[in-house]
Amino acid sequence: MPEPAITVAMSVFNGARFLPEAIESVLGQDFGGFEFLIVDDGSTDSSPDIMQDYASKDARIRAIVRENRGLVASLNEMIDLAQAPLIARMDADDICRSDRFTQQLCFLNDHPDYGVVGSWSEDIGVRGERLIRTGADHPVTHEEFLSSIETGGPLICHPAAMYRRDIVRSVGGYHAAFLHCEDLDLWLRLSSVTRLGNIPERLLKYRRYPAQVSSRHAMEQKIGTAVAQAAWRERRAGRPDPTADLIRLPPVDELDTLFGRAGLAWAVREQVALGLVYSPAALRGDGFDLLVSYLKDGGRCEGMWRTVARLVRFGEPLRAVQLARLLLRSTRA
């Protein structure tokens, strides 16, 4: 096989349900000069069999089956193994449009000052049905990207990203401490060394369903996001990044000490608590305890009656009553 222009990087963990459709969308690209790395990260379902079957039929696929090490380890492993100068991320439950690689390759060839380009995406459900989108699309230019960082808006959809391998290596790849938001942390670190943006076309169908990582780990993701943003502000101010060498993030209450900045732990708690009120998975899990703790410590109650209504809709009437009682006590105090 000639030297590939693109390495496609896909990590799989128990992804058999959607894996064939994801693989076929990559193999069906109108640009075929790529290698396709698929790492099975210790799956217990039929994922290894599926990927090895495809590898036996298409020489571009390099299938790696091993024990579970986690997504961040898999991503960094694929960066090290990549033979191409460009890496296209792909998840095992999403679908590429057939011209995705052509469009992103052309963009990076035409814009050598950009190290990363993503695209807009289309939300789909478990059966591939189109879902109604809410919220803003991802920023197109680097200037819009920087503005979106400031406002906490969307940056780049990870499985829609294509980036220059050597630029990502130059900043140390993905950082293990930011599990479940490793892409956000990477984009923030890259924003100081290269330009990032998105093609304003929906080149990826992004699947949403309750069992996906972003739903199951909503609270950890929100905490990691808040800390990554705090680290970005430190770097922007010319101060050392206290998270740079961490393997895992400390408890939220220890963030003041880590950053040497009084009040940061409270700011992170507030950002996370107010962000979790829209997540059914978080409100059904540990996120509810964090929200209650925040409110008991004097947190903002504005809009929380709507969260009571959400809890009822989410099938959590007891938690709805608990939150309502807390809000009533706060009103009387």
TrEMBL record:
| InterPro entries linked | Glyco_trans_2-like, Nucleotide-diphossugar_trans
List, for all copies, the residue spans of the domain called Glycosyltransferase 2-like: 7-171
Coiled coil start-end = none
- This protein's UniProt keywords: Transferase
Molecular-function GO term, any one: transferase activity
What is the protein's name according to its record?
Glycosyl transferase family 2
Report the source organism: Novosphingobium panipatense
The major lineage groups are: Bacteria, Pseudomonadati, Pseudomonadota, Alphaproteobacteria, Sphingomonadales
